[in-house]
Amino acid sequence: MASGGLQLLGFVLAFLGWIGIIISTAMPQWKMASYAGDNIVTAQALYEGLWMSCAMQSTGQIQCKVYDSLLKLESSLQATRALMVAAILLGLVALFVAVTGMKCMKCMEDDQVKKMRMAVFGGVIFIIAGLAALVATSWYGNRVARAFYDPFTPVNTRFEFGSALFIGWAAASLAMLGGAFLCCSCPRRETSYPPTRGYPKNAPSTGKDYV
C-alpha cells in the first residue's frame, strides 16, 4: 500500500509538472522590461516569449505580435523552443506509459512485474522531460542575465526574468521529482532458494520378520 501511495503521488506531481511546462511554453512573459517614459500615459511594460512579443500600456491594453519568421530568430531561441516542445511531447508519452503501469489501473493485471516496469519507464521519461525543460529555461535565463549586466546594453532595453521562467523552473522540478517517485516503484528481485528436501519417514514396524 505504501508503494502504491508513493506511485500515485509521483504521478500527480509529474502530471502537474507537465501541465506547468505547457503553460510556461505558451506564456509570453519569458523576459520583461518595465519602464516609464516622460509622460505617464505612455508608460508601458514589454514582454517577450518564445512565440510572440507583447506590450501592455498603462491603460491595461495589451498588444501582442507573433514573430514573423522562424528563420529570422536567434539560434538560441530556436533551440529553447525545440527543447520545450520536446519536453511537452516526452511528457505526453510518459503520461500514457505511466498510466498503464499504475496499480489502480486494470491494464496488465496478469503480469504485475511488467506493469510496475511500465510505471518505472514512465517515470524515467518524465525525468528526461523535466531535464529538457530545465535546460531550456536555465539557458534562456542565463542569456537574459548576461544581457542585463552587459554594460553595452542600453538601460531602456534591458530585460529581467519573466514569470514564465519561474513557472518553467518549478514545473521542471515537479516533473523530475514525480518521475523519481515513479521510479521508486521498481519491482525488487526476490532471492530464490532451492527447495528443501524432505527426509523419508521410517515405516512403522509391524513386529513380523520376513525371510
UniProtKB/TrEMBL annotation:
GO cellular component: bicellular tight junction; plasma membrane
Keyword Transmembrane assigned: yes
Primary localisation category: other
Membrane topology term: Multi-pass membrane protein
InterPro entries, sorted: Claudin, Claudin1, Claudin_CS, PMP22/EMP/MP20/Claudin
Transmembrane regions: 7-27, 79-99, 119-141, 161-184
Gene3D superfamilies associated with the record: 1.20.140.150
The entry's keywords: Cell junction, Cell membrane, Membrane, Tight junction, Transmembrane, Transmembrane helix
Gene Ontology terms for molecular function: structural molecule activity
Subcellular location: Cell junction, Tight junction; Cell membrane
Stated role: Claudins function as major constituents of the tight junction complexes that regulate the permeability of epithelia.
Family listed: Belongs to the claudin family.
Name recorded for this polypeptide: Claudin
Organism classification: Eukaryota, Metazoa, Chordata, Craniata, Vertebrata
